[in-house]
Structure formats: C-alpha cells, structure tokens
Amino acid sequence: MKTQTRLLISLALLLTTVAACARPAPATEPAPQPTVAAPARSGTIRFSQAGTANVRDIPSLMAYDVLRQMGYTVEVVPFAKTALIPAALDKGDVDFSDSNFTLISTAVAQGAHLQMVANKQGMSFAFVAAANVTDCRQLDQQPVSFSNLQSVGYMLFLRHVAANCPGIKPELVLIPESPNRVAGLAGGQLVAAYLDLQEWVDLQKQQPGKFHVLVDYAAEFPDTIILPVTVRRDWAKENVTIVHDYLRALLEAQRAVIADPQLLADNIVKYLSIEPARARDWADAYLKIHMWSPNGGLTEQNVRYTLSMLIDGQLVPAGIKPEDVADLSYLNTVLDEIGRQ
Which pTM does this prediction carry? Predict the structure, then answer.
C-alpha cells in the first residue's frame, strides 16, 4: 500500500512537471528600439544684411537660429548700400540676398544668374508728409526724400504721381537709412519722406499730429514685391536642401509671429534690444498691415505685377518674364510639405 501511494505521488509530480514545461512562456515586451537622430546639417550659409536690422528682419533672424540649431554655420554679411548686394550674390560672396526687387530684376536683365525664391516681407514703408501737405500737388518744388532712385518705394511714388498729380517736380533728396530721413522730417529740412514703419510709429508718438501718411503704399499697391529672398541659380540647384531648410525655417517663423503678437514683441526685444512697451507698439503696427505672408508671399501674379512697374519705368526690357527672375518650385516644395494657410 505504501509502495502504491509513493507511485501515485510520483506520477502526480511528473504530470505537474510536464504541464509546467508545456505551458507557453510568458510574453515579453519587445526591446525598445534606439532613437535614430536626424543627421546634423553642416556647411556655412551666408546671408546679406542691407543696412541695420529692424522689425521686418525678425522672422529671418529667428530662422537663422533654427539653422544654427540644425548644425549649419550662419554668417550675416552687412552691406552699407543695398545696391552692392546683387553683384556680391552673383559673384558668390553671399548665398541669400535681401536686396530689393528692382535691383535684382535689373541685375538679371543685365545678365546676372539670380532667381527669387520667396518674398521676405510685405510693404513695410509709408510715404509720410507734413500735416499741412494734403495733396501730392503740394510737393512740387519741395524737398522729398527716398533712399535711392532704384527703390521700389520711389517707383511706386512715381506711379502715384502719374495718377494723381502729373507734372509735379519735387526736389529729390537721397538719404540712406530711414532714421536719417526721420531726422530730416523732424528738423523741417524735408516736407515728405519714405519711412520704414517702425520709424513712423515712433515719429507719431514723438510729434503727434505733425505728420501723416500721404501715400499708403500697402493699401494702394498691395501686390508689390519689396524684398525677395534671392539666390544664384546654379548654387540653388547644387544646394537644394539648404534652400528648402531656410525657406521652411523662415515660413515657420513668419507663421509663428503672425499667430502670436507677443512672440513678435519678445523677439524684437531679443534681437533689436528695444524696451518691451516700444517693441509691442512696433509688433502691433507690423501685424496690422500683414507684413508677412504665411505662404511665402511669392506668386507669378505679384512677380508679373511688380515687373510691369519696372518695365513702365524703363528699368528692365519689356520682354522680361516672371520665370526670368523667379523660380517658385523651391517654395512650392516646402509648402507641399508644411501645408498652405
């Protein structure tokens, strides 16, 4: 009987052991896969800077920091005169330019291998006059100031004059840098001047009621391109990734400040060393006139429109076409990636 009991116990233990061996092994969590970091970018990108950086440059400055975080070395090359930039770009001294539409188009017409790939900004200027000047006919034989005779602002002024006060002959005073023109207005040496918006905002606070906008460029000429983002054709073909990376960073910065006025004000403080209250005034003024486009601001329509102005002014030959000065493919590729707004 004892022997039989021992056999039954042994059999039970054996069956338990077999069952345990037959039971499937508990499931295990898959080992976490290592995160593969995006390859860091490399190389140096050189951007021109026309004059002193101001509010219109804020999204660009933000984009430069993004490029640095990606691994690029970013160099900003200052130019005292905007007119020097197209030749420097064509020679390869810089990779991206912020020279104006007139200078880029005339350079292309003269054989430069340049192309616009985006529009850096909208209309950031206004033509401001003394309060007692209410009609452009009053500017005849009076001192008015522009930065140069190749500026888009001067071309637009000529269009306004042709439509509203043909035949007047103002005394043209060429003064580089908007703050210097403000000094001429405030001191009474000028009766009207082409001013950057931030200087106009300050002037209204400093001397309220003494001046007003005589020609509202943004309202009168909304399709005009002022400062396109321009590259060399061959360089862009060889550096497509860099062009896309910059345009993506620029558009994302522009969209961010459009959506958040305080972000724009904070970055004005950061990059321009301006006190917060003044920075907020500037931010509100620039956003009110829709300074930046969330979609890059370069279209065949506005390129054609701005070219027509230069053709009428005999600054470029009549046969020049939008595709001669602009290539929308880089911008469209980035917009296809990040979406249009």
Answer: 0.82
